[in-house]
Amino acid sequence: MRTMILICLFLGSSLSSWGQDKRPYDYARASAAEQKKGMYLLGGWSLASLGVGAVGYGLSQGEEERAFHEMNMIWGGINLAIIGGSVLLMKPAEPGLSLADARKKQRKVQNIYLINTGLDLLYMGAGAALLATADRYPGQEEGRRGYGKSILLQGGFLFAYDGFEYLVQKRLGRPLFREEGWSCRPASSSLGLALRYRFP
After folding, report:
1. In whole angstroms, what is the distance from residue 103 CA to residue 108 CA?
2. Which pLDDT score, from 0 to 100, does residue 160 have?
3. Residue burial 83-101, b: 16+ Cβ < 10 Å; e: rest
4. Are the beta carbons of 196 and 185 closer than 8 angstroms?
5. Shortest CA distance to 100 belongs to which of 154, 15, 27?
6. Residue 57 CB-half CA count within 13 A
7. What is the pLDDT, as a whole number, of residue 8?
8. What is the pLDDT of residues 71-92, one digit of tens each?
9. Is 194 helix (H, G, I), strand (E, B) or coil?
10. CA 66/CA 197 separation, integer angstroms
11. Which one of 7, 46, 192, 198 is most buried, by most CB atoms within 10 A?
């Protein structure tokens, strides 16, 4: 270990600490900003589902089409209610946020998106089941097909949305979970190596 440190210093290393990198607060703020961007996207989709669903429901000719638009309206309304509650409950990151608290918040955000992605698969499975079993219910088959198609559509969008947001949040939070301690790596501004120490 001592020999490695001496080699790093000899090759023109630089010493840096956590304090010279981004603060935990900066990462938490970036995570919150991405969550808000995602909510705008989900909100737009929900409004479209609600608006197009209302128009489509009024113009529908058959039971299947009517059920499809009805379920889209229901999903749009539920999503908008969830978004509204999330915005009200979201707390801004504090400038003095510790690394431990930043990690805790980031894990929570990532886990929420990951769990939601799993739930989205269940929604899609439920929609597929409605479609597959529609013919077993005489007199209800058209309505079940319409509901099934809507749930597949909404679940598919949410699966793509939650999965994408999980990957983005994981990338944003990756620097927070780097191991503390000494590290030796190529320097970005010279031909030497950089000796770094990250404080917890």
Report:
1. 9
2. 97
3. beeeeeeeeebeeebebee
4. yes
5. 27
6. 17
7. 38
8. 999 999 999 999 988 888 887 7
9. strand
10. 62
11. 46
Range of weakest confidence among 18-22, 46-50, 95-99, 133-137: 18-22
> One-letter amino acid identity for 76?
G
Spatial distance between the Cα atoms of 123 and 157, rounded to a whole number of angstroms: 11
The label of the residue with tokens 């793509």 reads 160
Q: Which residue has the tokens 């198609």?
A: 149
Sheet containing strand 15-16, edge to edge, reads: 15-16, 193-198, 181-186
Place of tokens 């023109």: 12
Nearest C-alpha neighbor of 147 from the set 161, 160, 163, 134: 134
pTM of the shown model:
0.77
How far is C-alpha 191 from the chain's CA centre? 38
Residue with structure tokens 């489509």?
Answer: 56
